[in-house]
């Protein structure tokens, strides 16, 4: 071998010995660490920087010829070796579909990798079967690397790879001649960092069980890139990028099925239904497609029929050694006992999501213990926490949890859990509703301290307490149904856009009838009339329910309920613009309310009288009547409870604003809408009234030519609509008003753009 053929490490050692220097002496002379020089001589460090070689050459006091030979040997050592076959990437699936946004994000995070910056590390987490490994392999192959290394960490096996074993695999892959890997973890990590330094590597660490398994492998500097996949979030890793993978979009799920089947005759509707039943999870989609391919006699409809049967769906999602249930089971076995019990019982949540409190009831554990178990489930991607804090899992995981519940807990235990669930939901709903009932005081031990808290809970858990109410009705618990619905009556005024009040008050009216109680039946038929007037815009049906209520109230002899029935009849008639009839029933209601000193009913009856006068005309005659209503609800001697008084005041001020708007008295209208907005802003649970008031102000500003302020009000109404769960308002006055404002603004903009 000539001097030109001597490897850099061997040449450096020869020159050091010729200079009669120890490693320590050369380190002192050059400023390069003795460890670094040793790594170069042993071939561990194959690509030292030019300035490092220059410093060593200075320390050796080399002449020009020897210096050039050393630099040339170093350059030769930097030539990338042929990739070894020790840890190749798995085969990339040919029908990989979608995930463009995720791949673009990974590419962006890793694009700037360099030796001068920390090595990019991306943790891809998500529930079983969503394609974490496939995504990591796809991203790794797209990255321009000197070498790709893939290690299955076996995180869900009984014995996952130890950090030392992981390092051993990687070290031998980069340096096959390195037969002995240090047993000490720190020394092995240091050797790995030395070997990977300045190398353009992509390391995929698949299926990690925890942070400790991968932390020693993470290089401190680029240009190496590390992609970690795990069902766990690996929240303890610092300085990493995180990508949570969920189900595919509907479009991508259908496209994946189409690519697997490769059948142009397959109906898109059928593929969409299969994707829906597989909750768009790639593993389930792939199994479903493979099952269809392996059974030539099957049609997509045959597979849909099997998947549609919930009790058979998980068993149907198996093809060869691919099983959705097996993938879920690996995660389930990782859980603690409390977390397993909670996971199983979350299958009993009637709605699509739950709060921590309901989870605590199901688990029969204190909140703190339940939160720890929920963290465990979320960390392992068996449960997802939404931005609003609610907890949910997809249908396949729910079916798996249901199966484990039936396998591990007896029928009596399951029935007891359901009873605890429903009792807690309905009891809590009643306690929350009490905050809105006139004259009621929250009982001791109530979980809420304010009406805002109570209202928020009723909205959040409606998807669960409504099914509990329906179950109570089906079980014949009529008194219970009536009591729960009655406790929610005043709250419903502030959440009129919820589409299920018809269900609530239909159940309670039916339960009252079955109890044979005319007074209760009249009350709940009145609530039903309200639903058809306010929520559904069906005044004819409302009129029927209100007249039924009057019949039952009359039979009961209850003067208060007779007055309320007249009120509901008049209200329904007002929507039919039968103003003389409205006034007749409104006066009957006012007389009845006064006779029984009903402070809640009287201002409502007076408001209806004013509305009838306004409708019959001239509208200005109604102004003093509305002002009397406002005086009645703001005078402590006659006022109902504060939240009811404020609601009626807001409604009355809104009607006063409408009178001024209709008369086109814009300065007076602005004063009225300002008062209406001020009142509505004090209401805790009626975004509808605030939307009405601010839309009125938007219209007044537009008519006054104050276009910027009109736009601000319009934008505020749009925000309120979103907060209220709507993208567009229901047909009616609010929508008409917004349309009018937008038309005025559009005309103004068109006129200005043409100037």
TrEMBL record:
Residues 12-67 form the HTH cro/C1-type domain. InterPro entries: AAA_16 (IPR041664), Cro/C1-type_HTH (IPR001387), Lambda_DNA-bd_dom_sf (IPR010982), P-loop_NTPase (IPR027417), TPR-like_helical_dom_sf (IPR011990). PROSITE patterns: HTH_CROC1 (PS50943). One of its GO terms (molecular function) is DNA binding. This is AAA ATPase domain-containing protein. It comes from Paractinoplanes atraurantiacus. The lineage of its organism: Bacteria, Bacillati, Actinomycetota, Actinomycetes, Micromonosporales.
